[in-house]
Design a protein that fits this description.
Blueprint (H helix, E strand, L loop, with lengths): L13 H24 L6 H8 L3 H8 L2 H24 L6 H16 L8 H9 L5 H26 L8 H20 L5 H12 L5
Helix pairs in contact: 1-4, 1-6, 2-3, 4-5, 4-7, 5-7, 5-8, 6-7, 7-8, 8-9
Length: 208
């Protein structure tokens, strides 16, 4: 039996609900493709064929390839936040939260959230010299990740948890090490994670 909307409350347009559900399903699949082949590997026709949908239906949901790419970038960010960032927020601010973020990232890389591995390692180099909305979105997400780590490091320094470090520089170093570890993991270097943890541990040395 269908539920009636409360008096005075408009019922949601089921076509819009179905469209949003389809859009989410398509972008999640597209993230996996883009993590392996890059955002330029995406096309409306390919996604329609992969998912058994009509090309015109997918076209209606996204319109242009750029709009599709932007939706995929946003979806990747949302999935990363859910898997890596939100769980770390349960930890106290400062060094404990940095460690949780790094451990979450290591899990993200070693038991890949996306089929092709790290979404940003694949796509940032592809768009770094291509001005436009897609590059801006990718680099805004990267900047947010650096700012998150730097903010927690700054808290740890101010609270006297760790030896004095430059938070922005240390965040840059951590991101660089994680990118290197991701590449090493993908080619079978079983020691890459240990090395990454050692580098991060060195930056989080307690005072005294």
């Amino acid at each position: 039996m269908s539920e009636r909307a409360p008096a005075g409350e408009a019922r949601p347009d089921q076509r819009l609900v179905r469209g949003e559900r389809s859009r989410r399903s398509i972008t999640r699949h597209a993230v996996d493709i883009a993590s392996a082949e890059g955002l330029n590997g995406l096309s409306i026709g390919r996604l329609a064929a992969d998912l058994g949908l009509s090309k015109s239906g997918v076209q209606t949901l996204f319109g242009t390839k750029e709009a599709l790419q932007l939706a995929v970038v946003e979806s990747a960010d949302e999935q990363f936040a859910e898997a890596v960032v939100r769980p770390a927020m349960d930890e106290p601010e400062g060094a404990a939260r940095v460690r949780a973020l790094i451990e979450g990232w290591i899990t993200y890389a070693t038991t890949p959230l996306f089929a092709g591995g790290c979404f940003w390692s694949q796509n940032l180099p592809e768009f770094d010299s291509r001005p436009g909305r897609v590059r801006d979105a990718l680099f805004a997400q990267h900047r947010n990740w650096l700012d998150l780590i730097a903010g927690e490091l700054r808290y740890a320094v101010d609270a006297g948890e760790i030896a004095g470090v430059d938070p922005e520089l240390a965040a840059f170093q951590i991101a660089a090490v994680l990118a290197a570890a991701n590449c090493a993991v993908r080619v079978g270097d079983d020691d890459a994670v240990r090395k990454a943890r050692l580098v991060v541990g060195g930056l989080l040395r307690p005072l005294g």
